[in-house]
């Protein structure tokens, strides 16, 4: 972005970072983005550092980090806390791998249910619906 330093309004910042104005305000309330001082009789202005910060937050969210975790990462961003940042990323990676394992289990169970539906002939009882009821009464699912 070739904007002059601190020349963007909140609307311009939102457009530059491809977020909504309310997202910026929410991030400011969460202390993820600083709120610039309002000059007397003027409006707050934002610059490239604010765009960079917003893009950092959005990228971290895309990687699965919660806003609380992103806040922790932002506190470590001075470059001297690489081990702490790495530990947070390792924890997130474990979480992602656990979610993948759970999703693979769900995929297997759903695949089996769909196969039972396709194999079922001549009865009114739907095997998929029956399996879901059995899971509620039985083991609780996958």
Biggest sheet features: none
Low-pLDDT runs of 5+ residues are none
Q: What is the string of SSEs from the N terminus onward?
A: HHHHHH
Beta-strand portion reads under 5%
Q: What number of structural domains do the residues give?
A: 2
Structural class: mainly alpha
Q: Share of helix among residues?
A: 55-70%
Number of helices in the DSSP assignment: 6
- Multimeric state of these chains? single chain
Summarize model confidence as the mean pLDDT. 86
Tell me what the structure shows.
This protein is an all-alpha fold and 142 residues long. It is 63% helix and 0% strand. Helix 1 crosses helix 3. The protein is elongated. The model has no long low-confidence stretch (mean pLDDT 86).
Question: What's the short story on this structure?
Answer:
This protein is mainly α and 142 residues long. It has 6 helices and no strands.
SSE diagram, text form:
Blueprint: H1 10-17, H2 21-29, H3 48-62, H4 67-75, H5 82-119, H6 127-137
Helix pairs in contact: 1-3
């Amino acid at each position: 972005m070739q904007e002059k330093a601190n020349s963007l309004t909140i609307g311009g910042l939102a457009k530059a970072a491809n977020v909504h104005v309310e997202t910026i305000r929410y991030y400011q309330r969460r202390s993820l983005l600083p709120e610039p001082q309002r000059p007397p009789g003027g409006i707050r202005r934002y610059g490239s550092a604010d765009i960079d910060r917003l893009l950092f937050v959005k990228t971290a969210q895309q990687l699965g980090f919660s806003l609380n975790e992103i806040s922790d990462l932002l506190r470590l961003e001075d470059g001297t806390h690489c081990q702490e940042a790495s530990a947070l990323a390792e924890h997130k990676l474990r979480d992602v791998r656990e979610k993948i394992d759970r999703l693979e289990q769900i995929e297997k169970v759903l695949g089996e249910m769909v196969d039972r539906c396709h194999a079922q002939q001549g009865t009114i009882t739907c095997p998929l619906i029956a399996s879901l009821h059995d899971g509620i009464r039985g083991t609780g699912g996958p």
